[in-house]
Description:
Blueprint: H1 3-7, H2 17-20, H3 47-67, H4 71-80, H5 98-112, H6 114-117, E1 121-124, E2 127-138, E3 141-151, E4 157-167, H7 175-194
Antiparallel strand pairs: 1-2, 2-3, 3-4
Helix pairs in contact: 4-5
Amino acid sequence: MSIFQWWSRAALFFNQFVNLMAGFVPSYALQSSVMPLGVPTGALRAPGDNAICFVVQSFIDELAGAAGVDPLRFRLAMLDAPSARPPDSEDPLDRFDPKRMRGVYEAVAARSGWGSRATAKETTPGSRTALGLGGHFCHYGYSAVVAEVSVDARNAVRVNKVWSVNDVGRPIINPSAAIQQVQGSVIDGLSHLMNYEITF
């Protein structure tokens, strides 16, 4: 198997948040089957993380909805649960820190005004606007994002604004490059959501 084939799989790795949930959620089990994708991903960055993060965060939102709990509060409560999960190794970079994950969630919620704006509101006749939330841990970094999204009477989706908070836990040598990485990832994600299509 080539390195391209290996990285093109949507596989689960030990240091991703979905695997780390096992220490915070009772009666948790996860299985996956790696199947040939058949679609070349080209220069797509972290294809496994992109797919896994979307699926996991969507499922957490479904759980929060079924429980009748605000999506942010649901995630924070999950992170507050005592972890029975042992560290992956002696290397501190391999250890998931729920306090740091909580920190990015709380920071992005504060910056976006989550508590006062999370409920969907009708902005014009037939059009609704609401906030959505997600987060991920991989490559030893913690990230949380809030998006303000509108859906009009024709069900056309518009992303009005995105807030992103990231904790990579070490000094950033080139702050402008770090900002560009975050902004570029938001643009790339929006492109996947709004514009990309397979034409063959």
